[in-house]
Amino acid sequence: MNMFNAILTIAFRDIIKLLRDRTRIFGSLIFPIIFIGVLGTSLQQNLGENLGYNFLTFVFIGVLGQTLFQSTASGLISLVEDRQNDFAQEMFIAPISRYAILLGKILGESLVSLVQLFGVIVFAFLMGIPLDIPSLLRLIPCVFAICFFGGAFGVMVMANLSDQKAASQIFPFILFPQFFLAGVFNPIINLPLPILIASRLAPMTYAVDLLRSVYYWGKPEYSKVVLFNPLLNFGVVLGFGVLFLVIGTVIFVRNEKNR
Amino acid sequence: MRAELGLIVSMSNSNIIEVSNLVKRYKKAEKNSVDNLSFYVEEGSFFSFLGPNGAGKTTTISILTTILSATSGSVKIAGFDINQEAEKVRQNIGVIFQNPSLDLNLTAEENIRFHASLYNLYSFSPSYRLMPPAYKNKVAELAGVLGLEKELNKPVKTLSGGMKRKLEIIRSLMHQPRVLFLDEPTTGLDPISRQSLWLYLRDIRQKKGITIFLTTHYLEEAEGSDFLCVIDSGKVVAKGSPAEIKKSLIKRYITLDAQDRTQLKKELAHQSLSVSGKGPFKVNLDGSTGQEIIQSLKTPLSYLDIHNPTLEDAYVEIVGTTHEHV
Lengths: 259, 326
What we know:
The structure holds 2 protein chains of 2 kinds. By secondary structure, chain A is mainly alpha-helical.
């Protein structure tokens, strides 16, 4: 009960922060809109005909996975910010488990990325991207799993960064290549060996493929756009999510106390 | 003298803080920041921790409040070991950090509510209206004591430094801690805010019987404490009540002068007193009182000053020997 209350409190603080920061809400919608609106449409117009599946739908599902993973992961950057502003001390002297603090942050940032997700979906409908609603609804449990996965990945990366400057400089290098390795807007079924290895090592690959494998399940395009079985993707997302969270928390707590 | 004072270690049941042989060496550091520190704090007392910058005050307070781990030694707070029972220690302490640890995006009341929920005092609710009456009464009571009723619904960003400190105090008292740690709480405050903050703290201490553990640069703030501990380079260099420290360390003296300085000097020399200066003369009291010395003198005096040592004099004497302040 104690832990649940603490998690909720910490999560709610993130939501309040989002709602009071209009620029952040606006900024968080810009990238998905550019990816789908500009990149997606131009590729669809020029290359789409030969693919045998709708490229915009492919990019849209990819962007959903990428947005959730990236937004939750980079939302954890506020952990470094808190530490910098000394607000973290308030949480760290509270009589609660360190896992409660980090789970609260992940939940809060997941809710923040769901707000963003809603914006992306509205945009997709406005653009008239062909979407199958029952298949979209099937994605709901996967959405939560991906938020958790992204958050846990964020915790692991953040735990190793000492200040906000380092975080804002290093984080894009860790995230940006994953957009391409995970095939958010590029098919990655056939790849040269070194890229193939990097692609399979990138956590975002499994987040994106989980959504595609569930969305395209039973559809004729399935084999052309999906890498792995949905269950395998789900297992990787949850399993590695827990692993990242445990490793991240242990490192985070150790770095906090053993200075 | 210093070694003797450093050895005063006593353990009793009424001690709320017991620190023995505490050592902290930061990673890659060549020296210990806290070097074999031992002291105790009695429950309900006002304890001050003094020392120059870099003496190890904040390091010690960070260890005592469980946010930094020690290299060796043991610390018990309210009977709980800081390593084995950290959560119980946290339940019993309130901390005002050197840098305000408030969330600037929230209002004053939201900061308090956030704290109350983290400490599981009340179930979390996204709105003040939905919070139970017990919470509202408690906030109103503490805000009343600290004079912050009007600012409760304002964003923390808009509050002055003094108000932020008061808000932190309200927040830290919500869970009724037995010890309140204050790490240089008045740094950056103007004299009026500083004075009013102390009035409120004194009031709260009387009403709630809380032990106060203070680190400060301002010696007049420590003057009112029951017990103080001076540290330098991570070691205890003096401890005792402010009066004891002043008595044991300060050379008490009187300054005298007369028209006939030769006669006065002769008289003073005759009484085998330690005298310095060519006039006015500085006469060390060495156990006797100023009254006794003056009574024994026949030479008419033209000047008399009895030096009344302050804690600052004692502090400068203790710490000044190892630091060359420019």
